[in-house]
Design goal:
This protein is of the alpha/beta class. The chain has eight helices and twelve strands. It has helices at residues 2-23, 52-64, 75-84, 145-152, 164-172, 183-192, 223-238, 241-248, and strands spanning 32-35, 43-45, 48-50, 70-72, 88-94, 103-112, 114-119, 138-141, 158-161, 178-182, 200-205, 211-218. The longest helix is centred in the N-terminal third of the chain and has 22 residues, at 2-23. The chain is globular. The termini are far apart.
Length: 253
């Protein structure tokens, strides 16, 4: 009789624990953060997340009391993971109409400007309007915001690579007419590759996708978690933490 009672009690305790787990608030739930190698905004260094955007996300987590590991993936995989997995945060992501309904948008975490670049020696190549660029081959990265934007504008002559830096190398070797690139990342990579910046000209700003990089989350995520992250980002902007991070990276808001 005693053993049967203890067995029943153990089952009841297990059931209670399971119910408690389902009832835990968003603060105690596991969340996942996915991103890519995209310096100077986000990159891994000896297993640690570094860069301007990474620091902003870390500050948001600290503000909200949340903890999560940063998972660095190829962009296309990170993008799909965030779309298909609840409570998954993605950054740094551009916000365009094609993506608007795919995520819940937490907010801007970094300034962002994108331009078309050519070889300085290509004096025959002039871009006055976006449509002028349709006549030329343009290097882009798979499934990133630039690729999606140009595709939405009916560009067909796009040369797609898996790593951003490959486009700079191709342009330097005259294997492309143009590349579309984030301006801060472009400077970072030509310094890293030890390429003379005078080799290139920035010739056209893509204003439609310039402005800011975002932190976003799977749209089916816990509403409390979404509210917490939005409040956390607002808080670090209000108390000056956000501006301090920008200043450390010598970026103007």
């Amino acid at each position: 009789m005693v053993s049967a009672y203890l067995s029943l009690l153990a089952r009841l305790l297990r059931a209670a624990l399971i119910l408690m787990c389902f009832a835990l608030p968003a603060r105690a739930q596991d969340i996942r953060i996915v991103t890519e190698e995209f310096p100077p905004y986000n990159y891994s260094d000896n297993g640690l997340a570094k860069g301007l955007s990474s620091e902003v996300v870390q500050a948001v987590l600290a503000e909200t009391g949340l903890t999560a590991e940063f998972l660095f993936l190829p962009w296309a995989r990170a993008y799909l993971t965030a779309q298909n997995t609840k409570n998954t945060v993605i950054f740094s992501i551009g916000r365009i109409p094609e993506r608007e309904d795919l995520f819940e948008w937490i907010g801007v975490i970094a300034p962002y400007n994108t331009s078309l670049y050519k070889l300085a020696s290509r004096t025959d190549l002039t871009i006055v309007s976006l449509s002028d660029a349709k006549d030329y081959s343009i290097g882009v990265s798979v499934e990133d915001v630039i690729y999606q934007y140009l595709k939405s504008q009916n560009f067909t002559n796009l040369d797609i690579v898996g790593e951003d830096v490959l486009n700079i190398r191709k342009l330097a070797l005259s294997r492309l007419d143009l590349i579309a690139f984030d301006e801060a990342a472009f400077q970072y990579y030509i310094d890293l590759e030890d390429i003379d910046p005078a080799l290139f000209d920035r010739i056209y700003r893509l204003d439609d996708i310039s402005g800011g990089l975002y932190m976003a989350i799977n749209k089916d995520s816990d509403p409390e978690l979404i509210r917490s992250l939005k409040s956390g980002l607002e808080a670090i902007k209000a108390d000056g933490t956000y501006d301090q991070i920008l200043n450390r990276h010598r970026v103007m808001n």
